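Sharing a chain and its predicted structure for anyone who wants a worked example. Both blocks are below, sequence first, tokens second.
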Amino acid sequence: MKLSSILSAVRNQFLWTPKHPAPEQFFRKKPHFRLAAYMKGRRRNCWTLMRTQLEKQLLLAAWGRHMTSREKRYLRITRMEGALTPFGLPYEQYMENLAKMNILLNRKILADFGIWEPRTFRSLTTLVGHKCDLENITTPVQKAVRPYPTDSVLVRRCLEF
């Protein structure tokens, strides 16, 4: 074999090698680059730095969604406890008796009733109070369920001028 043929074969091999990554690599990385479009510096363009930063950010986002739902749950429970305070019912007993009576309302709806629809919430609380009376359930906090809140509590739209 001649030296010129060997050189031409080597030259042709280098001429036909792609200067850009294969299309499948581009399309595999494209969603990651879109997520990293707002990043600063090398994290935006360098694949390895971007990938590690994206993993961290996606983990933090998942953790944040979990914590948001947990905080919403605590907020709704607190609102319900505040709405139940004038009636003298503890939250746990209220939810347990609602389940026994087959009233399937979730915390969000009950908390909204306690804030925006006090008469509906009062009727539900009265039902639970009668259920407690039938089962002879008394706690130190509650000797008798009051069907109406005390006079010192101001409830929206219950006062008439």
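Comments welcome. Residues 35 and 54 are 8 Å apart (CA to CA).
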